[in-house]
Design goal:
This protein is an alpha/beta fold. The protein has 15 helices and 12 strands. Bound molecules: pyridoxal-5'-phosphate. The site of pyridoxal-5'-phosphate (PLP) has 13 residues, from helix 4.
Length: 397
Amino acid sequence: MNNHFSTQAVHGGEEKRKPYGALTTPIVQTSTYTFQDTAEIVDFLERKAARKAGEDLEVRDEYGRYSNPTQSAAERKLAVLEGGERALLFSTGMAAITTAVLTLLSAGDHLLMIDNSYRRTREFAKKFLVRWGIDCTLVPIDDPAAWVAALRPNTRLFFSETPTNPYLRVMDLSSMAGVAREHGILTMVDSTFGTPVNLRPLEYGIDLVMHSASKYLGGHNDLLAGTVIGPRRLLDEIENARGVLGGVGGPHDAYLLLRGLKTLDLRVRRQNENALRMARFLEGHPAVRTVYYPGLPGHPDHEIARRQMSGYGGVVSFEIDGDMEDTGRFIDRLQIPYIGPTLGGVESIAQQQARFVSLDPEERRATGIVDNLVRYALGIEDCDDLIADLAGALEGV
Ligand SMILES: Cc1ncc(COP(=O)(O)O)c(C=O)c1O
């Protein structure tokens, strides 16, 4: 059935008839799954082999590092919401990225990555992958000529994020997929800030989408998870690597994620609205130097975002007219948002990015995070209250 997004968010991927007649998918809290006898093991192995050979059949669970029924339901729902053949769940977003990239690349391969991506993703590429003989070139998000110039005969993967954390630059996914197709390389997009409500990268020809599900997908600041979504031929390989590398999440987190996903559409629409209103309020405010939000016509990627996204997302970044200390005092005057290093949940969270990078100014400069940058991740509170609170805190700048 071709239901709309919010119907799929509630019902997609879950059996109508669940064990015990339960309405919600049960948390199957077990580390392993037992076999009645040897014949059942043989049957299991035969079905697994048939599935590997391409037959579309169900295979029972074996051990918690490979699968869990609560996790499988969450994976089916994620695949439906992103429009992919398969989804895999991981313990964190970083486990999703590292496992997928390690599956796709081998020693001697070259990776293209946008220079604006999440700093831990860049750290994985520049500090870890290089040690295993995989080179990475960082390229600007908005310069297809620079992407092509950076390509090498051994380039295998082009990784981007959109919108980026924290400057909210937007990748033109059609251009990215076009360049990759022309040169026979795979593409992977971190769509954590986009969410499948606002953006569906697979529809633009991107091969793999990933999310930190700890953010909008979970949506309640109470779980850590990551997901990779895409075609079965790639996901089957990544699943095997997950079984080896072990970055699998637990059934309880999978349940929380299933529950969070049911309200994804409602939450993200509200967060889009709150963020757009806040960005408009901040634009032109005398205590604010620059506002970064792709929904503002002055944003360098506004036209791409308008074409590609159905909402501009729930994060607004901005520079206070002040230094490191002024910005810290501004954050401390805010009454409603929490201070912390995450985003995407129902509670608003504001942070001075530099405080979470390093005490060393040189190190901060190297990451590209300026001292007066604030990342405000909107929750689902009433926007009038959030703006009144913000206006009060800005008065002291
Ligand atoms: C854009 C983006 N990708 C990936 C991650 C990593 O996700 P996790 O914290 O779930 O490992 C984050 C976390 O902040 C993020 O913001």
